[in-house]
Amino acid sequence: MTLAIVMAAAAVLVIIDQVIKYFVVENLAPSGSVSVIDNLFSLTYVENRGVAFGMFQNHVWLFAILTILLIAVFIWLILSKKLEGKLFITAAALMIGGGIGNLIDRIWRGFVVDYLSLSFFSPVCNFADYCITIGAVLFVIVILFLGGKDKKQPETEMTAEADKNEADAQKTEEEQDIEKASEKEEIVTDGSGEEDGE
């Protein structure tokens, strides 16, 4: 179930990423760059043959293989339940979705389409890059601060323990009622025996 949720969310992200890239290639590539907010944010068409944010150029197939391995690792983590919780699911969906989005570009075009340019951050990137980055940050938080589990996990365990204690208490009350009923039966039996003796 968890894997289905992650893959469905990742598929939505891939669709969003590819739709945006389609319009970028069709409309932005001819002009090259369009300013959205002066001296802050612009849309700039770049053919990136590296990884996220334009790093490590001209290793297309190596990065394709690494992306496939990364996706396989996340699928294994989900199926083995090594890591759990909503935050991990979110991180996995973002990283898988972003990874597949850029993987499609590498296999189909031979490069990744980048278009988001910030004046204070020199590399031009794309929607998938930000999905991967945010997912990586969330993944680190899950590992370092949550111990790989959702914070709600201990609460669930406490609830289970409370339910067990309540069940034990009810069982004890039932046992006491049975003992009282047995005592009453013994008293009635003893009384009947005395009457027969007389």
Write a short abstract of this structure.
With 198 residues, the chain is an alpha+beta fold.
Describe the structure.
- By secondary structure, this protein is an alpha+beta fold.
- The protein is built from 5 helices and 4 strands; from the N terminus they run αββααββαα.
- It has helices spanning 2-28, 60-80, 86-108, 127-145, 152-197, and strands at 33-37, 41-48, 112-118, 121-125.
- The chain has a 4-stranded antiparallel sheet with strand order 1-2-3-4.
- Helix 2 (60-80) runs antiparallel to helix 3 and helix 3 runs antiparallel to helix 4.
- It starts with a helix and ends with a helix.
Q: How is the biggest beta sheet arranged?
A: 4 strands, antiparallel
Q: How would you sum up the global shape?
A: elongated
Structural domains: how many? 2
User: What is the gyration radius calculated from CA atoms?
Assistant: 31 Å
Number of strands: 4
Helix fraction, binned, reads 55-70%
User: Alpha-carbon distance between the termini?
Assistant: 75 Å
Average pLDDT, rounded to a whole number, is 80
Low-confidence spans: pLDDT under 50, at least 5 residues? 152-158
Q: Find the structural class using helix and strand composition.
A: alpha+beta
Order of helices and strands, N to C? Answer: HEEHHEEHH
Per DSSP, what share of the residues sits in E-state strands of 2 or more residues? 5-15%
User: Can you list the strand order of the major beta sheet?
Assistant: 1-2-3-4
Number of discrete helical segments: 5
